[in-house]
Amino acid sequence: MTYLPFEAIPHIGIVAGTAEGAALCYRTLCHEAERFMGRHAHPEITIHTFSLRSYFDLIDGDDWPGVADLLSRSANKLAHAGADFIICPNNTLHRAYDLVQSPVPWLHIAATVAAEAARRGFHRVGLLGTRAVMEDSMYSRHLNKEGIELIIPLADERDNIQRIIRHELIAGRFTSHTRNVLRAVINRFRTSGCDAVILGCTELPLIVSSEGSPLPLLDSTRLLARAALEQVECRQTPDDHIETSEHRNMVGMATGRFHLVSSDHS
């Protein structure tokens, strides 16, 4: 493979939400890029985030246009920093995705997970995440396009998972008790006929591992990072390099996960 000059390699922008999820995504990008870029090499990466408190205040007030405004402002900052496309390693913030205005394309986390679920031949999957994610249609829309059924936890389980994420995982606290609680929910998914479970919160991979799970995992954080690297890898030769945002969108749409979110988006 003929490599482009470093400055011509697509620049990844990260709209961050929580520290734990953004850090895991960033580490995955840096470590797994070595597979095709060489030792210690990775694309240029820029991260921007507003205060998590700002997001929580808007989410708790059910102000999704306000969330979208912050995401749009982050996207513009990243575009001005040179990002060619954007990822957001935060599932909850994707609830405002359809309202975001951005000058560069985004990879959608749920579309990325749905594509991987289809590739692996899953038919019925469970979902773990915040209440905003579990009770929204963001995952079911993309999974249904692939012919995959989505199952969410029971109401009391959703309440417990919401508490765990907000008060433990985001703060970097991971206990064996919490691990057992999450494993019990996954086991109920298994007995309900699920053949996989989506870790639809970017902190969940830090406490739920494939070794301890009753079902195969669809890790939204790492899958999003890998999808971003696929976009970089497919443009490693001069013939494949895409200059315009319109062409970038066309390349990404071939994967079914890349979308142009702009002032014209509706």
TrEMBL record:
UniProt-recorded Gene Ontology molecular function terms: amino-acid racemase activity
SUPFAM superfamilies (UniProt xref): Aspartate/glutamate racemase
Superkingdom to which the source organism belongs: Bacteria
Key words of the record: Isomerase
Family stated for the protein in its record: Belongs to the aspartate/glutamate racemases family.
The protein's name: Aspartate racemase
